[in-house]
Amino acid sequence: MKRITIVLASLAVLGSLVSCEKELAVKNTNNQTTYDFGNTEADLQEALIACYNRIRLEGTFARVGYMHDVVRGDETWNPQNAWYLPADHLNSPGTNEVTDQWIWRDCFHVVNRCNFVTSKIEKLNLTGETIDQIYGQALFLRGLAYYTLATYYQTVPLFTDYDQYGSLETIYAPNVSQDEIFDQIESDLRKAMELLPSRDKGGEWAKGRATNGAAAGYYAHALMFRHKYGEALTVLKDILSMADGGNQKYGTYKLMDDYGANFKEGTEFENNEESLFEVQFMDYGTGGSDEEWTPVNISSNATQGHALEANFGPGSIGGWGDVSMSNWLYNLFKAERCTDGTLDPRLYWTALTYEPEYATYTGARTAAYPNGDPRSNTAYMLTITEENQAMLRTNNDNGGIIVTKHTNGRMNMYDKVVTGLHCGINVRLMRYSDVLLRAAECENEVNGPANAIQYINKVRARVALAPLSTSGWTKDKLFEQIANVERPKEFGCENGRGIDLIRWGFFYDSTRLAQISEHSRYFFDKDVTVPITTRNLTAGEATDDSFTKYYQPGHEYFPIMQDIRNANPNISGNSANNNTDNAAAWKAAYGEVHPVVALD
């Protein structure tokens, strides 16, 4: 018995040793670290999805990140929502969390996750076609995030290696110059252009993902911000469709026959042939406030939409009524008729207004609602008539022309504005029409007007506007046409106008500042029994004018929030923090601002 006991005890000890060895070899897959994860192609694909997820936060393109550049421009005004007043008035003191921190926070979420992907690939020396695609997409998304940061905050810290987050000495990095940030943006996008396939070669894979065309498009954006027009023109000509003189290097793009197809939800409209890059959204999920409004987003029921519809939507039917179209932009649309005498159809897709002409449209080229009877069209279950148009106002208290882009105002898909991150319309960040108009701008800057007109006329032909004459233009006059007619009507109330005003130097010239101040005049329409005021406003009629009355030099950029500067003492303030006028530095780098020129 004693021998048996000894034998059994020995076996138990051996068994426990074997068991311990097996237990020690097991990794807890639910407690992975950045050292364990990201070492395989499958891991990196998952990490890349996490990078795309970050451009869908409210600080990037799902809400305030998109809207703050919309209100920074002169095409819209803010009917007194405190969240957007600092951006609209361009005078934030650096303590507004929404303006001065959320965009910073969420863009750096994108940067940090992309750095994880790129650093893993670089340190492990991973290669192959799929790895190239992963690497290229991460570089594009990092470039996009830094483009947003540099054009919103001017000067920010630069992180390109994930190891920088591992030490207090490197994580508390100082901000670097705007030029250094743009050098990195250009580097990232050039590399992405080499690594990524075109939309044609990518096929179904390319839908919703960054391609070499998307990288090339944003590379041209970055070059033009620093007035590298010759380099940008070369890239833009490569993107052009073969019919427009391009070489299909970056895939086949074209203008959609229906301008409205760029703002509709559905597989037949989203990721279409005009889209170089768009952010993917779905009307999905019922998650609570933690999932909707914070960067956590871990619930399986987290909403997958954006809140732009609620930002633009009128308060009377569930929207927040945050942003209204400027009277200047509305009247810019009304100033020029299509060749058959109808209204520019882009007005229909930009403003939710009643126009008697809409009831008589028939042709698809100029019809604002080409695929159905416009007399039965409704907006959020409200039939737009001459009688009820007074209630179609952005803000319940202060009125304003309703913006319909990025909403279901012209599609009647939903019976109300659903507040929160619920709108499923993809947000198109760059379209082929932008390539054409940027090519026209660069051509005009480099070679003068002669060859630039052709690109403008292709955009005008899509909406049946008469072509511009090929004669009678100076460089300054054609610039005026592009900056204050063609681009506003094509991209009205979309993200990017504020960035344009900075790169053109409009904040650094008194006549240009007066011009955009005139554009941004607004009027509080408090009487809901009469239609909203749509006429151009004189200074005496206007309720206010944000640029003239409130703008402080340097505040064309948003200040870095004081809490961020307190947490990282190595970060210095930008021009908005320090109330520094950027005019002298801008003119030293780029010359004089184009003068205001009267158009015929």
Write structural notes for this entry.
- This protein is mostly helical.
- It folds into three domains: 37-195 and 554-584, Alpha Horseshoe (Serine Threonine Protein Phosphatase 5, Tetratricopeptide repeat); 202-251 and 258-278 and 426-504, Serine Threonine Protein Phosphatase 5, Tetratricopeptide repeat (Alpha Horseshoe), CATH 1.25.40.390; 303-424 and 505-551, no CATH class.
- Helix content is 45%, strand content 3%.
- The chain has helices at 2-25, 41-54, 58-62, 64-72, 85-89, 97-124, 129-153, 168-171, 178-195, 199-202, 212-225, 229-239, 289-293, 308-312, 327-334, 345-350, 432-447, 453-462, 475-491, 497-503, 510-519, 546-550, 562-567, 575-578, 583-590, and strands at 76-77, 275-279, 324-325, 378-379, 382-383, 401-402, 427-431.
- Strand 4 and strand 5 (382-383) form a beta hairpin.
Q: What secondary-structure arrangement, pairings included, does this model have?
A:
Blueprint: H1 2-25, H2 41-54, H3 58-62, H4 64-72, E1 76-77, H5 85-89, H6 97-124, H7 129-153, H8 168-171, H9 178-195, H10 199-202, H11 212-225, H12 229-239, E2 275-279, H13 289-293, H14 308-312, E3 324-325, H15 327-334, H16 345-350, E4 378-379, E5 382-383, E6 401-402, E7 427-431, H17 432-447, H18 453-462, H19 475-491, H20 497-503, H21 510-519, H22 546-550, H23 562-567, H24 575-578, H25 583-590
Antiparallel strand pairs: 1-3, 2-7, 3-6, 4-5
CATH hierarchy class name of the largest domain: Mainly Alpha
Shape: globular
Low-pLDDT stretches are: 1-21, 362-382
**Helical content class:** 40-55%
Strand order of the largest sheet: 1-3-6
Count of individual beta strands: 7
- The name CATH uses for the topology of the largest domain is Serine Threonine Protein Phosphatase 5, Tetratricopeptide repeat
Note the gap between the termini: 114 Å
Q: What's the average pLDDT?
A: 87
How many domains in all?
3
Major sheet description: 3 strands, antiparallel
By helix and strand content, what is the structural category? mainly alpha
Number of helical regions: 25
Radius of gyration: 26 Å
Percent of sequence in beta strands: under 5%
The CATH level-2 architecture of the largest domain is identified as Alpha Horseshoe
